[in-house]
Amino acid sequence: RWLLHYARMAELYDVDLLVVGNELGGLTGQEAPWRALIADLRRVYSGRLTYASSWGDEFEKLPFWDALDYIGVNMYYPLAETGQEPRADSPRVRGLVEKLAAVSQKYNKPVLFTEVGYPARATAAVRPWETNDAPLNPELQKRCYSTVFEAFYGRPWFAGLYWWKWPSSGDAGSYDGSFSPLGKPARQVLAAWYSRPPGAASPSGAGGTLSSR
Fold first, then answer.
1. 196 vs 80, 152, 157, CA distance in Å?
2. CA torsion, ordered 98, 124, 163, 129, to nearest 10 deg
């Protein structure tokens, strides 16, 4: 009933996308109730539906992706090994692209990064999900942003992404190690990519052309 209330509200305000759950790995093995919920939501909401899965097993094995419009993943797979720099052409990132493409192909659904982000810390590429006391490294955060764009943006199976995070208060800056790109070099990456018209070459010269997503 709780989610149906918000689905009706989303329909009323012509919301494009509704996320039916977020990182509920302890519950998503119960396939039948989820399918029933999704069917109920579609009766009151005409927009698109996704689920925000945890990266790893939940994303790769969720039993009801076929009932949704997008394969949603909170994309915190490491971009590099310890001591390595994140690069779109590295074996690790190429393998990650292949993994996500395979799940998309299996269900014939586009992949949506329901969450992706990197703290401005020295551990950003290796443990992107962590907020810790590692040394500040805004340049590494910037390289992680660039790697994600270069590796995924414009691929036909990729629906888009939501960055974690952009605080509504505007409280962030180069002095902190938070996930926010505000006041940090990563913001330049966002500006460069999002200001390009569809079909234009990527700002870095890698990763093909840009989609409109």
1. 27, 15, 20
2. 80
Dihedral sign, CA of 13, 24, 121, 78? negative
Residue 116 near residue 162 (C-beta atoms within 8 A) = yes
- Report the pLDDT averaged over residues 22-40: 95
Phi/psi of residue 161, each to 5°?
Answer: -155, 155
Task: Give the chain's domains with CATH numbers.
Answer: 2-194 (3.20.20.80)
Return d(Cα 53, Cα 70) in angstroms, integer.
11
Mean pLDDT value across residues 171-181: 85
The answer to whether 22 and 59 are in contact (CB under 8 A) is no
Would you state the pLDDT for residue 199? 66
pLDDT tens, 106-158?
999 999 999 999 999 999 999 999 988 899 999 999 999 999 999 999 899 99
Q: Rounded to a whole number, what is the distance in angstroms from the first to the last CA of the chain?
A: 32
Q: Is the pLDDT of residue 213 over 60?
A: no
The two tokens of residue 99 are: 């993994």
Residue 172 to residue 158: CA distance in whole angstroms? 29
* Residue spans of alpha helices (H) in the chain: 2-12, 31-44, 57-61, 91-107, 138-152, 186-194
Structure tokens at 73: 């993943």
The CA-CA-CA angle for residues 67, 113, 210, to 5°, reads 110
pTM of the model: 0.90
